Amino acid sequence: MKLKRLLGVLALGLAVVILAACGQKSTENVIKNELKDSYIGYSEDPGYERPFIEGSDTLTFDKKENTITNSNDYEIYFSVVSDEDKTSEIKSVLKELDSELSNTDNFTIAVSKKVKNPTVDDATAFYQIALSDGGKTIKIYELRRDSRDYGYYEFSGESA
Hints:
Elements: H1 2-23, H2 27-33, E1 38-43, E2 55-62, E3 67-69, E4 75-81, H3 88-96, H4 98-101, E5 105-112, E6 125-132, E7 137-142, E8 154-159
Antiparallel strand pairs: 1-2, 1-8, 2-3, 3-4, 4-5, 5-6, 6-7, 7-8
């Protein structure tokens, strides 16, 4: 009797773990399946790096080459930053953005004009990509919080 009960509890626990794992999307799957090739949108403020300009723009994502290009043909390399590699500054800004990021599939990217697969150490900046509606809608948040006279890059767009 005790063995049956123990096996039942173990089976139930295993089912819960499997269901939880299946419900989570990996960043790799989000990029592969939800991130669209291009988005048309707007940002009130520019980022420090091109292609992240103020005003209306089209951003094109090349997932094979890991590049983002804007409508003026400015290109930048990107790579995904793992949770383990996020700096305390990145984590702090993400905490500030928690309400904006809830109910989205989101991930952090490192960007560089020169380095093809930028790491935390050689990136020029970090941005948070938040996708919703299966990737039809995108928000890109600049994670830099230096003092400046204007706001931070926050692109809102729809898939083209």
